[in-house]
């Protein structure tokens, strides 16, 4: 069977048609990066309007590319939370209308579960249970994943997410931030020395699996300001390309060291508790980062684990994640009522 998926939880309007065996038949994504670039971040009101303007065209493009129509899709899935409420509502309302008009089964999708599910789209052999590291724009969590809708959180961030920290670092260095600053920081870091700027590894004394990125964010800003002073320039924005690259590389390195340390602990704990879990799924927008992918792969190999990570373009938000998560639910005989679907800005896993 084939499913139309719709995603509008943040600043990307995505739609895709995915077949039940995981083949993406058609997809379209309207990025709002040019709109939010100007403001240095996502402006919810502008995002909502942009979703409204793009949605029908994006849906049509995905259907056309798949060579199908709304009459012929077998079900519709849409992200209903967590995310920006007014943005979620644009996609959810349209999806509910379409499901009722065309009389199709309907599934309301948990956005974070959909990020996790992309690991199972990427690797069909990935069986439950497995461990996930979810690193995205709004979240940073280690979860043990036991089945559709069945997750337990081993650790989470005490303050900021890693994606947010990448975005702030991009802004500090005057790099493009529309659509997320991560790719620009990653690209510049390739030219830098990761040991050039001394930064503190977060939560060294806390022996649990939680994260903290607020301190590192401040740490990076102070170090950049200090360097600007030494160089006799007004602000970090005026540093040379090499200095900026050194900051980017040093930040990225310590950010990853923190992930490695917390994951190492979580994996060791899990090994004692649950012999069945020996696979790590790396998911969420930050999982697109190549340095992160290769470093965590090394960590997994050293511990005798397997790592699964979706291709970069399927790590960040897009429509296929909503379609595939719907397929996973539909295969279990589970769906929702489109005449009575809420959206949730906050959406704990236990509610999904
Ligand atoms: P959430 O999924 O938590 O609701 P979101 O949907 O806004 O948040 P995602 O689309 O999953 O976030 O991820 C976007 C984040 O990923 C941004 O913070 C962006 O900077 C980051 N990101 C994207 N590509 C990279 C990269 N190559 N390196 C580092 N960070 C990246
Ligand atoms: Fe996301």
Automatic annotation (TrEMBL):
Cofactor: a divalent metal cation
Catalyzed reactions: L-threonylcarbamoyladenylate + adenosine(37) in tRNA = N(6)-L-threonylcarbamoyladenosine(37) in tRNA + AMP + H(+)
Keywords, alphabetical: Acyltransferase, DNA-binding, Endonuclease, Hydrolase, Metal-binding, Mitochondrion, Nuclease, Transferase, tRNA processing
Listed GO MF terms: DNA binding; endonuclease activity; metal ion binding; tRNA N(6)-L-threonylcarbamoyladenine synthase activity
An individual GO BP term: tRNA threonylcarbamoyladenosine modification
Any one GO CC term of the record: mitochondrion
Domain spans labelled Gcp-like: 24-324
Co-factor: note: Binds 1 divalent metal cation per subunit.
Main subcellular localisation: mitochondrion
Subcellular location per the Swiss-Prot or TrEMBL entry: Mitochondrion
UniProt keyword annotation of Signal present: no
Subunit structure: Homodimer.
Protein function: Required for the formation of a threonylcarbamoyl group on adenosine at position 37 (t(6)A37) in mitochondrial tRNAs that read codons beginning with adenine. Probably involved in the transfer of the threonylcarbamoyl moiety of threonylcarbamoyl-AMP (TC-AMP) to the N6 group of A37. Involved in mitochondrial genome maintenance.
Name of the protein this chain belongs to: DNA-binding/iron metalloprotein/AP endonuclease
Species annotation: Nitzschia inconspicua
């Amino acid at each position: 069977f084939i499913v139309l998926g719709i995603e509008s939880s943040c600043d990307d309007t995505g739609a895709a048609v995915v077949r039940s065996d995981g083949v993406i038949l058609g997809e379209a994504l309207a990025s709002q990066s040019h709109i939010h670039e100007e403001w240095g971040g996502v402006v919810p009101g502008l995002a909502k309007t942009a979703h409204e303007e793009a949605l029908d065209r994006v849906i049509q493009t995905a259907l056309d590319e798949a060579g199908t129509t709304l009459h012929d899709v077998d079900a519709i899935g849409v992200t209903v939370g967590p995310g920006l409420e007014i943005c979620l509502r644009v996609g959810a309302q349209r999806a509910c209308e379409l499901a009722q008009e065309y009389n199709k089964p309907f599934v309301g999708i948990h956005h974070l579960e959909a990020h996790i599910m992309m690991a199972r789209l990427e690797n069909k052999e990935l069986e439950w249970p497995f461990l996930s590291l979810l690193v995205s724009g709004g979240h940073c969590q280690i979860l043990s994943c036991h089945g559709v809708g069945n997750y337990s959180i081993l650790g989470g961030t005490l303050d900021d997410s890693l994606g947010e920290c990448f975005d702030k670092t991009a802004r500090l260095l005057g790099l493009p931030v529309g659509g997320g600053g991560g790719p620009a920081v990653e690209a510049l870091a390739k030219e830098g020395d990761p040991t050039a700027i001394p930064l503190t590894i977060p939560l060294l004394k806390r022996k649990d699996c939680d994260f903290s990125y607020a301190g590192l964010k401040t740490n990076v800003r102070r170090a950049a300001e200090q360097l600007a002073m030494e160089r006799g320039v007004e602000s970090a924005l005026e540093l040379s390309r090499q200095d900026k690259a050194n900051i980017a590389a040093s930040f990225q390195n310590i950010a990853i060291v923190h992930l490695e340390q917390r994951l190492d602990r979580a994996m060791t704990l899990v090994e004692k508790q649950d012999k069945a879990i020996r696979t790590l799924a790396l998911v969420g927008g930050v999982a697109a980062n190549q340095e992160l992918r290769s470093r965590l792969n090394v960590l997994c190999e050293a511990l005798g684990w397997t790592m699964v990570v979706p291709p970069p373009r399927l790590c960040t938000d897009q429509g296929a994640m909503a379609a595939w998560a719907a397929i996973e639910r539909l295969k279990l005989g589970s769906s929702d009522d489109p005449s009575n679907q809420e959206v949730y800005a906050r959406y704990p896993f236990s509610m999904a």
